[in-house]
Every structure is written in structure tokens, then in C-alpha cells.
Design a protein that fits this description.
alpha+beta, 17 strands, four-stranded antiparallel β-sheet, globular, 11 helices
Length: 386
């Protein structure tokens, strides 16, 4: 089974990740990982740091000659801004701790709660690790794991369906059409008019010193029925996927299929009738369940959505209190984005990859990709003949 740990601070020397459990024999394209990292840094509304960092991954272990060995994989992403922060952020006892102290917590961030928890008087010790910069490491993991999933013809795409006050019109679109539309959009939206309106909304927010959130949707096709389990609460795939998405900084809500809308509809409007065809096998004309029933995949496209709150760092700061003097002040300002919802689509795709891979390894678990492919094909043959 896959597991991984990330380490590193936002302005430290690097982000490090160790990924354990990847089967052997999987061809890994480092440039594909770098492309995922580049995509994470794109999107209209990103802040000044994206002009500094050009994320590139270095692979230090677990891969030889381009193929996974089955041993732990170590990846490193250098922080280009480290040269400007070395004096303040070095691990050595020479670090200058008196500069750029953060004593004015920002509403919406974990600054105050984290400082209380770990007894920090300087909340830089909190925000450096809590920062969404950490998601670069998780994107590297997801990008690598998707190279495994793609070998089994499992595909993913994600797009923004609302940003601030702008909603993308609800419409049925072909997978390839959505893919092409979001590739052209600076806000990763599959509708041209909505994309243009979202860009204008970001511009207005920037001028007002505000930030914007939104909702993005992830779709996965190629999953067979039977991944996950209903027999124990902690093995339900819907719960595991929701946890992965909720762990992304700024995410405040997750839904699957119809999600919250299901609470306002009758049963016949929510549940998907089951049919059988000689060619298709079992199928459903609708997908209100979003590809999951009872914590188990049902063979339909997996549909997940996540709501991201507006970024809490505001250029017109909210009221706060200095933790040292206890005097009322304006919250600290750190360099930040106006909107990171388009970038969150990349992170969302990345964080669900290890969850799906573990569901596959639980079902078809082997140490080598060829063994997994054989078990995968045998299972699909069984499903088609069921």
C-alpha cells in the first residue's frame, strides 16, 4: 500500500517527500511531474511568488534507469526564494529570529490556533509549514502515481465550475471537449463566457484588495466496479477521497455526485436506474451517485467537487490582536494570491491519486506492474461476464 510523508517550510531550502509502496517496473517520466508542478503554479489570480519559483523535481531514490524499483522514492523540490530567507529560516542556531516576526494573526489562517497549540510567540513558525506551498510536494506525489494509474487506462480531468460570483452553466459535455476547453482557459473553466467573467471578477477583487474562492470538479473514468469497501467505515472509498480533498489548504466542503443537491430532491430524482445490455453489460443512464455507492465504485465516472474558501491573506487586512501586546491591530500581510481555485484543480487531481492507487492495490495487490496488469485484466473479464 502507498504511504507518503512531506517535509519542509514555505521559505526553507526545499520540500521533501518520501513515497513508499509503489510497485516495481513502472516507467516514470520526470518531465511529466515537472509539468504538473508548472500547472499548479499557473492560473489567473496567482501572486508574486509564482514569478520567483519554477518548480522542478529531483528524484533521489527508488527509481533506476527510469523505472520504479519497489523501494521508497525520495523527491525534492528546491525553494528558489530560499536565498532571500536563509538568514531567517536556517536550521542552525545562527538564524536571526528577530526579523519578520509575525505577531498579528490573520483571520482564516491557523496562525493563532497553531501558536497556542505549539506555544510559539512568533507565528512564522506556524505559517511556514501551514502554507499551501506544501501542496507542491503532494502534487509531485500525485503526478508520479497518476503515471501508474494511466497504465491501467484510468484518466482524470478537473475544471472550475464556479469562481466567486460566477458560475459555469450546467451542461453535458464530452470528456475530450471539456479537456480541450480547460486547456485554453486561464482559469481552467470549460465555458468561454464563464472564463471571461471569472477573469473580470478576479480583476475586480484585486483592485478592491479582496480575494475569491470557488468550486472545482474532478472526474475520473476507467475505474471498475468494486473498488473500496462497505464492510468497515474506514475502508469506504468515498470517505477516503473526501478526506484527501479536505486536507488541501483552503478546502471547506466536498461532495460526490449530486452531493448537497440530493438533500433537496426525491429518491426517484436522485438514484440511478440500472439496465443491462449485451454489449454494455450493467449500466446507468444517469450518474447522480457520482460513481460511488456504499463506499464502493460502481463502474460509472467518479465525480467529486470541492469548495475552496477565499484566501485569508488580504491586502486590506481584517481586524486582529497582537499576541504580544494584546493591542488591536490589522492582521499581518504576507505575499499572497487573489485566487487559487484554478491551481487547486491540479492539487485536487494529485491528492486523490494515492487514494485510488491504494484501492487498486488492495484489490489487485502485487509488487510488480506486470502482475497487477494481469490481475486487472482478469478482473475486467470477470466483470464483463457477471
Amino acid at each position: 500500500m502507498l504511504r507518503f510523508l512531506t517535509a519542509g517550510e514555505s521559505h526553507g531550502p526545499q520540500l521533501t517527500v518520501i513515497l513508499e509502496g509503489m510497485p516495481s517496473g513502472i516507467k516514470i517520466d520526470r518531465e511529466s511531474i515537472n509539468q504538473w508542478l508548472a500547472d499548479r503554479q499557473k492560473g489567473y489570480g496567482r501572486g508574486g511568488r509564482m514569478a520567483i519559483e519554477r518548480d522542478q523535481v529531483s528524484i533521489l531514490s527508488g527509481i533506476r534507469g527510469g523505472y520504479t524499483l519497489g523501494s521508497p522514492i525520495t523527491m525534492v523540490i528546491e525553494n528558489k526564494d530560499w536565498t532571500n530567507w536563509r538568514e531567517l529560516m536556517t536550521a542552525e542556531d545562527t538564524a536571526v529570529l528577530s526579523k519578520r516576526k509575525v505577531t498579528r494573526p490573520r483571520p482564516g489562517h491557523v496562525d493563532l490556533a497553531g501558536a497556542i497549540k505549539y506555544r510559539h510567540q512568533d507565528m512564522r513558525n506556524v505559517l511556514e509549514r501551514a502554507s499551501a506551498r506544501e501542496t507542491a510536494a503532494r502534487v509531485a506525489v500525485g503526478a508520479l502515481v497518476w503515471q501508474f494509474l494511466n497504465l491501467l487506462n484510468i484518466e482524470v480531468l478537473a475544471h472550475v465550475i464556479s469562481l466567486g460570483p460566477v458560475k459555469c452553466p450546467s451542461q453535458e459535455m464530452d470528456w475530450e471537449v471539456v479537456q480541450e476547453q480547460i486547456r485554453r482557459s486561464s482559469v481552467c473553466c470549460a465555458d468561454d463566457e464563464a472564463s471571461a467573467a471569472m477573469v473580470k471578477a478576479i480583476d475586480r477583487a484585486r483592485e478592491a484588495g479582496e480575494t475569491l474562492g470557488g468550486v472545482f470538479e474532478i472526474m475520473v473514468r476507467g475505474l471498475p466496479p468494486g473498488l473500496g469497501s462497505y464492510v468497515h467505515w474506514d475502508r469506504r472509498l468515498d470517505g477516503l477521497l473526501a478526506q484527501a480533498l479536505m486536507s488541501i489548504q483552503g478546502i471547506k466542503g466536498v461532495e460526490i455526485g449530486l452531493g448537497f443537491r440530493a438533500g433537496f430532491l426525491s429518491g426517484s430524482q436522485v438514484h440511478d436506474p440500472i439496465y443491462y445490455g449485451a454489449q454494455e453489460g450493467f449500466y446507468r443512464p444517469t450518474n447522480g451517485a457520482g460513481g460511488l455507492e456504499g463506499g464502493v465504485t460502481n463502474g460509472e465516472i467518479l465525480v467529486l467537487r470541492a469548495a475552496m474558501k477565499p484566501i485569508p491573506t488580504l491586502m486590506k487586512p481584517l481586524a486582529s490582536v497582537d499576541v504580544i501586546t494584546k493591542e488591536p491591530v490589522e492582521a499581518t500581510k504576507e505575499r499572497s494570491d487573489v485566487c487559487a481555485v484554478p491551481a487547486a484543480t491540479v492539487v485536487g487531481k494529485a491528492v486523490i491519486a494515492p487514494v485510488l492507487a491504494n484501492a487498486l492495490l488492495e484489490k489487485f495487490g502485487h509488487d510488480n506492474i506486470d502482475e497487477i496488469k494481469k490481475a486487472w485484466q482478469d478482473y475486467w473479464d470477470y466483470v464483463r461476464d457477471f
